Amino acid sequence: MTQTSLSSRPEPQYLKVKNHLRERIASGHWVAGDLLPSEAELVVQFEVSRMTVNRALRELTQEGLVERLQGVGTFVAQLHRISSTLTVHDVHDEIIKRGHRHEAQVHLLEQVRATAAQAQEFGLKTGAKLFHSVIVHLEDGLPIQCEDRWVNPACAPDYLTLDFSLSTPTNYLLEVAPLSEARYSIEALLPTAEEAKLLRLSKDQPCLVVKRRTFSRGQTVTVVRLTHPGSLYILEGSFQA
Q1: Same domain, 172 and 106
Q2: CA 60/CA 68 separation, integer angstroms
């Protein structure tokens, strides 16, 4: 008797419908406010049951990608609704909520050429233009985060003209390129020599490093490395099935 591995099992029918709709939204084929095909049309297109289509649309609604109006139809959600479901926080807002003072020191703001690795991450050609910034965020005068960020100019053309001592990159990017997806990793690492200097740490003091890549309409918007002194930072969050 043979066993079928999980990886070889066919994809559930509702996921085929869900992924098709998600990909069309991410690519910009449908934009915010567009009416999606009706349940009946999707049933015919994918040759599945109405229950299968309903589950796909229900899950997309729960994820904030679409809105369903009874008797009217299913529409692509406004992107600000999508971004609100992602746990991407502005460090300025976090500090203010704690009743403390936020300060940002801009150490670098420049245009660079993408390396081969960066080009692959952004879906660009090697040597294509990228924006780069290094900003240290302070809470009541104490450095708590070194933000080393690369930005796709196509998504945020005014990036280099802004004063990030007054408004954070996160706040600006959420406005001009609302998020549809975010991927991140979290590691305990030693700081680089530059990070140690900017955060006023010794080179052997462990840090919490968050690496995050965000997307809008299928494009990579930004890749950022956020380094925090391990002794001063607690990472908190919540997840809901």
Answers
A1: yes
A2: 10
